[in-house]
Amino acid sequence: MTAALHIGHLSKSFQNTPVLNDISLSLDPGEILFIIGASGCGKTTLLRCLAGFEQPDSGEISLSGKTIFSKNTNLPVRETTFGLPRTGRCSVPHLTVYRNIAYGLGNGKGRTAQERQRIEAMLELTGISELAGRYPHELSGGQQQRVALARALAPDPELILLDEPFSALDEQLRRQIREDMIAALRANGKSAVFVSHDREEALQYADRIAVMKQGRILQTASPHELYRQPADLDAVLFIGEGIVFPAALNADGTADCRLGRLPVQSGAPAGTRGTLLIRPEQFSLHPHSAPVVSIHAVVLKTTPKARYTEISLRAGQTVLTLNLPSAPTLSDGISAVLHLDGPALFFPGNTL
Fold it and tell me: Residues in domain ABC transporter?
């Protein structure tokens, strides 16, 4: 199978400051990839290089087997087949929604029967058929998002690129537009690259996630693999919350840390030092011990919240704060037991 997108060893600097460093990625036909990372990590620059708005210093980019950038090739933007929705606004404010989508078809402008059929199909696909005669100033932000996607899909691009497409919308509208946009992309069989800083969004909607930090890709994997089998401590901390401790491995599949001796998931040899990570949801709090890994603790303070109970407790010399969706009624100062569900993760050499 020919990759919908292939990026090989791509690098880019601005004024001798590296922004992208040896980026390699591939995307299968119909696959949705989320690129996530903190602000300034290089994810938007990577998207601009893919779209042809920035020229990489080195590396190569190919689209469905066709090289569009390499040492000897640099196709103009007009000769590539990317769709890049200008999210949040229509590109031509004096044209109706219908004409804005027709604008995406290029020279045809929706004059032929085939072009009109394509425009009507995109209106229906994105749920805006009833808005066809309206003008941009008559649309809400969410409606303009749908128009932007319909216009980008109209010329049938091989790949859709989206840079923080939902960031300007309120939470309720963002959720609805996001689900509709993902559904439209999948219904149209399009590959897509989303740039996002929202890890929950990526975990829910991506086929694969690429985590970036300081111009490098730390790991590319499915959401499940990235969450359960992370290859890098920085990646796992960005993709989800974690409680970390310095630790040393033992020969029996455990590690010693400030919470005591805990089971770990690691293939490193005994004696290796590194960082142990526990997901907060692995903990549960009970009044008594049970035949599982138990850590004795003292409850310092419990604070009921809307959807969980915030509990501060001391385990040995360590003070932990956990947000537990359900917890027994415990008085401050009472002794309790933390149960650990499953092994902790261990990252050799990542000392705190």
Answer: 5-239
